[in-house]
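If you are new to this repository, start here. Below is one unmodified record pulled from the training split, so you can see the exact layout before writing a loader.
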Amino acid sequence: MADILELNLDMSGPVRIARDVYWVGSERETPLHANPYLIVDGGEAVIIDGGSRLDFPAVMTKILETGVELASIRAIICQHYDPDLCAALPHFEDLLLPGNVQILTSKPNVSFIRHYGVRMDIVETETLNHRYPFSSGRTLQFIPTPYAHSAGSFMTYDLKTGVLFTGDLFGSSGEDWKLFLSLNPQCQGCTRTLSCNLPDCPVDHILSFHRTVMTSNRALRHAVHLIQEIPALIIAPQHGGVLTQSQDIQLITDKLLTLDHVGIDGLKSKNNDVFFGL
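And here is the target side for that same chain:
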């Protein structure tokens, strides 16, 4: 299977982004790619943001291609409740062993996730003290990021590998999608916002995505400040590209901290009409 060191990735199979951490998404062409992930720890495995109904065949195939047995999957982490990461839950339920797997999510997400018709136990991360331990002692930490973009949104940090799964944070959309995002050296030191001279600038795509998806300047900045406190080596968002270079992570962090006109703060009232003031 492909891994992060390969120049020509084979997206038809699982892609290793860190030790025992895999991207298992679909390679189909769509402006909004969803990135499901799989963490394997010995005889246990956890899925993060399992994807949509459209992507389920590809996702399940890639999970099996990692060599993981269905009985090893113990949890599906849902970092918020949108269909692009939760709609496949009933399909997983049909294949996984009854009573062997739980849905892990925050309390505000539970009532929404139940509308997918799942019968699996839903465990609130708050009752776990925002941590999930594997039998080996490896631990995942859940970091709440309220209103970035839903009330119950959170991130998942793998303390063993330093991978931070950020959900919609650090995400983007666009036709020119690449699993691993490496910024142009010209981006370093750039002070522009949504006015890049480079064609199809990935930073512009990220900033535009956050203005549209996040709820407000305050919610975004609160979440990004939390990210600054985490010693993440890799940023793995639910949409867009995985960031592996510290200078790229720092640049986008700085851009997001100063981004304005986010969500409701991008609305202006003029002659009783409401419009996006981007």
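Two things worth knowing about this chain: The chain has a mean pLDDT of 89. The chain has one domain: 2-276.
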